[in-house]
Each structure stands twice: as structure tokens, then as C-alpha cells.
Write a structure and sequence with these properties.
single chain, about 325 residues, alpha/beta, TIM Barrel, eight-stranded parallel barrel, 10 helices, 10 strands, globular
Length: about 325
């Protein structure tokens, strides 16, 4: 595994991290989940990304990760960077959602109990809710660190006009923002509009989630929508309409470039994000050890020629591809 320092800090992250957004809930096979986590750790992935509402059911990914940690990896806790987040709907009632101090404080206490951890290495505000003053949310993060419930803090998906304000508040309190998490892929490049630069200028690392655009940047949809794929479901984050003719055509062209590089489309898509040294890590999901292993191999070729980058940009310039 390759590692990069997280912004202007002494903390290193593997360039590929494992996210437990999907495939680690109560509805999933616990043995498969265990095999994925253990295999990831054995290959150098020591950063595991959670959130309080990951499942389904909400909270079950944290519970299952805690079981895996106790059963298989308990003696390796200090070799791991374990993160969690709060801010999206988690429980019923007005306090189970949003970015308030009430929600964040209750959430981290619940998350620590579910995982069985004494502290998280990083705890994020999962989103800006559009209502809570960022001063309140950032103070909650500051107090979480001072209470010993997390070593570092981060922000996720914050709009650019509030991103700098968050950094300023946290820096003033001497609890700087270690890392910022944003959606980033070849088909979603909004972070390039200023969020990436703002983070780098303020010494924050950047971690990308959904780097494969929910599977669109893999070979899964090159020949249509498979029967049991995410896009085939009635509900979910990837809808049939998003698997458009234009995106499929673009993925086919990108896949040809990947083949010439000796990579799968997924491997190239991950490497393409990591070509920017400001990026600390990409968070991948996995439904099997085989899929995990395939994606990890992206680190074997992170370099792009000028010609390859030009060819990729020529494909991606069509605005209909963007989410």
C-alpha cells in the first residue's frame, strides 16, 4: 500500500481506504463483510470509514465493524485509522438529524457504544444542514476532541462559502480540520471548482467518496443494466436514468484507454483521482474480496502521460456526463 500525509499534519492515510456505506449492514452476509475487512487490513488498508447511519438498518455497519474488530483485529487497534460521521437522519424525532450540537453529541456517544471503541481517530460533521450555524457545529467538534472522544475532526460535503469559515473556527480553537470529504469522480468534478484548493490552502487533507460514480466507472454497466445491480433496484443512490447512453458511451471509451494502461476501468478511475497530490485517499466500497483486490491494484499505476490525460479530458468535456 502507498501512503500520503493528510494535509499539513503528521497523520498518514493509505491512498485507498475502505468505506462501509454499503455491504456491511444487517441485511448483508457477516462472513463476507468480515473477509473484506480482514483482507483490506492485511493488504495495508488501515483506514476504515463509517457513519452513524450506515447499514441498513442505520447503525448496523458500526455494530458489525465493532464485532469484526473484536473478533479478528482487536490487537491491531492502534494500527488503524477509524472514522465516523453524523449529520444525516439517524433516529426518529427532531434531534435525530442535522448538524446541531444536540445531534452530534448524542451521535458520537451512540457510535462509540456500537463499535465498542473508546474514541474515533476522526469524527466528521457529515453535512451542513442549511440551518444550524456553523459556529455551533464546529464548537461541538472542538468539544468532542477535548473530551477525548475523537483525536481529530473533519467536515464532509460543506459548501464552498462555508468551508473556509469552518477551517477558521477550528484553527482558532487549535483543533484544525484534519480532513475534508467530498464526492469526486470523473463524472462528478464539482470539487475542482474551489473546494479542493480551499482545503489544500488550509492544510486539510481531502478524501474522495463515490470515486467510481456508484459503479458507472466500472465494467458493470458497459453492456446495459445487469439484473441485480444497484441501478436495477427501484430505490437507491444510482437510478436507471443515470445510466444514460452518453455515460455508457463515455465509459466504453474510457475503458479502452484503461486497457492500454493495463488497468480495469475502475482502477484507472481511482488512479485518475489520485494523480492530484492534494488528494489524500479515495474511499472504495466492496461487496467481495475479489472486487476489493481488483480496486486496490490501482496503486500499481498512478501515473498518466500527457496524451492519456488529454484523451480523458476530451471524453469528459461533454457536460451531459456530469452529475
Amino acid at each position: 500500500m502507498k501512503f500520503r500525509f493528510c494535509g499539513r499534519s503528521g497523520v498518514q492515510m493509505p491512498v485507498v481506504s475502505l468505506g462501509l456505506w454499503h455491504n456491511f449492514g444487517d441485511v448483508d452476509d457477516f462472513k463476507v463483510a468480515t473477509d473484506i475487512v480482514v483482507s483490506a487490513f492485511d493488504q495495508g488498508i488501515c483506514h476504515f470509514d463509517l457513519a452513524n447511519n450506515y447499514g441498513p438498518a442505520p447503525g448496523s455497519a458500526e455494530t458489525n465493524f465493532g464485532r469484526i474488530l473484536r473478533n479478528e483485529l482487536a490487537s491491531h487497534r492502534d494500527e488503524m485509522l477509524i472514522t465516523s460521521k453524523a449529520g444525516h437522519e439517524m433516529w426518529q424525532g427532531v434531534y435525530g438529524d442535522g448538524s446541531s450540537r444536540k445531534n452530534l453529541m448524542a451521535s458520537i456517544n451512540q457510535s462509540l457504544k456500537r463499535t465498542g471503541l473508546e474514541y474515533f481517530d476522526i469524527f466528521y460533521s457529515h453535512r451542513y444542514d442549511g440551518v444550524t450555524p456553523v459556529e455551533e457545529t464546529m464548537q461541538a467538534l472542538i468539544d468532542i476532541v477535548r473530551q477525548g472522544k475523537a483525536l481529530y475532526v473533519g467536515i464532509s460535503k460543506y459548501p464552498l462559502d462555508l468551508q473556509q469559515k469552518c477551517y477558521d473556527i477550528l484553527r482558532e480553537a487549535k483543533v484544525p480540520c484534519l480532513v475534508s470529504q467530498y464526492r469526486y469522480s470523473m463524472y462528478d468534478r464539482k470539487v475542482e471548482g474551489g473546494a479542493l484548493k480551499c482545503a489544500a490552502d488550509n492544510g486539510s487533507g481531502v478524501v474522495a467518496f463515490s470515486p467510481l460514480a456508484q459503479g458507472l466507472l466500472t465494467d458493470r454497466y458497459l453492456n446495459g443494466i445487469p439484473e441485480h445491480s444497484r441501478a436495477a433496484r427501484e430505490t437507491g443512490f444510482l437510478q436507471k436514468g443515470q445510466v444514460s447512453e452518453e455515460r455508457v458511451a463515455a465509459s466504453i471509451k474510457l475503458n479502452e484507454i484503461a486497457k492500454k494502461r493495463g488497468q480495469s476501468l475502475a482502477q484507472m478511475a481511482l488512479a485518475w483521482i489520485l494523480k492530484d497530490e492534494r488528494m489524500t485517499s479515495v474511499i472504495i466500497g466492496a461487496s467481495s474480496v475479489e472486487q476489493l483486490n481488483n480496486n486496490i491494484k490501482c496503486i500499481d499505476n498512478l501515473d498518466f502521460s500527457a496524451e492519456e490525460l488529454s484523451q480523458i479530458e476530451d471524453i469528459l468535456k461533454d457536460p451531459v456526463l456530469s452529475f
